[in-house]
Amino acid sequence: MRPPENAEVAELVQALAQRVRALLKRRGLDPPQPDTEDSDPLTRDQPWLAGVYAGSICGCLATGVNAGRRVVLAGDRIDPEAIDSRTGPRCASVSGFSLHTRERLRTQA
């Protein structure tokens, strides 16, 4: 088989994103809408703790005079924000779903 074209990969990941969201909704697992009061009870009940958690996830300091600045890690030389997997050949990203088709599986005859 020939490798897929970039446009084919983008079309496939778009279809997968829509189908996964539809499946989650049918099973009652779709996330709450962001404007509802119940969408984030931690932010409502404990905003300081929610801010600390958010800073941890983003890799930023959450409190103090340096709040919002990136955390410096000793020995860490990879900047994940500089990695854009959508620009490579046969890769696509749509609404948080990504598909990478650069590798192929070899079969034994």
What does this structure look like?
This protein is mainly α. It has helices spanning 6-26, 41-45, 47-58, and strands at 91-94, 97-100. It has a two-stranded antiparallel ribbon with strand order 1-2. Strand 1 and strand 2 form a beta hairpin. The two termini are 15 Å apart. The relative contact order is 0.18.
Structural features:
109 residues, 35% helix, flat
Task: Provide a brief overview of the structure.
The protein contains three helices and two strands. With 109 residues, it is mainly alpha-helical. The two termini are 15 Å apart.
Counting DSSP E segments of at least 2 residues, the number of strands comes to 2
Biggest sheet: strand arrangement: 1-2
Q: What level of helicity do the residues show?
A: 25-40%
Structural class, judged by helices and strands?
mainly alpha
Indicate the topology.
Elements: H1 6-26, H2 41-45, H3 47-58, E1 91-94, E2 97-100
Antiparallel strand pairs: 1-2
